[in-house]
Amino acid sequence: MTLKIYLSGEIHTDWREQIIEGAVGLDVSFSSPVTDHGASDDCGVAILGAEPDKYWHDHKGAMINAIRTRKGISDADVVVVRFGEQYKQWNAAFDAGYAAALGKSLIILQRPEHDHPLKEVDAAALAVAREPSQVVDILRYVLDSTLPE
Question: InterPro entries per the record (predicted)?
Fold first, then answer.
């Protein structure tokens, strides 16, 4: 059973790489949003033309990025959403809600101090993990019925 995993959320740490490296040997494939912050922010104006108004600059980029995000979440068996500590992750919360609305298996990856602000998001998830290694352990258990040592 191959699992398609979509890795959503903050782009400022290496949590995606930790999960991908930890999952070597498991029957999984990964996809994610564009994690190059500059490319993600500027894709709309680079493709559709410059905007003097920052709102429309950001809006164009968000719409184009949404094409990839919707496809990735729609195709996924499991959606992992990471909430980072440095920034408010409105896009991550939206992705979690979209995945939940589609009935996707949802794993939230967050620090304990986010438990209260994310209680509604967490309630829609099937697991709330603290570390990328716990996400890998969940995937291993789901695929191989193997518990961590």
Answer: YtoQ_family_protein
Q: Does domain 3-33+73-144 have CATH number 3.40.50.450?
A: yes
DSSP 103: T
Q: Measure the CA dihedral 33/36/42/48, to 10°.
A: -50
Render each residue's pLDDT in the chain as its tens digit; 149 residues.
Answer: 899 999 999 988 999 999 999 999 999 999 999 999 899 999 999 999 999 999 999 999 999 999 999 999 999 999 999 998 876 788 999 999 999 999 999 999 999 999 999 999 999 999 999 999 999 999 999 999 999 98
Query: How deeply is 62 buried, as exposed, middle or buried, from its count of CB atoms within 10 A (0-12, 13-18, 19+)?
Result: middle
Q: What is the pTM of this model?
A: 0.95
Nearest to 80 by CA among 33, 148, 24: 33
Edge-to-edge strands, sheet with 28-31? 28-31, 3-9, 78-82, 105-109, 127-129
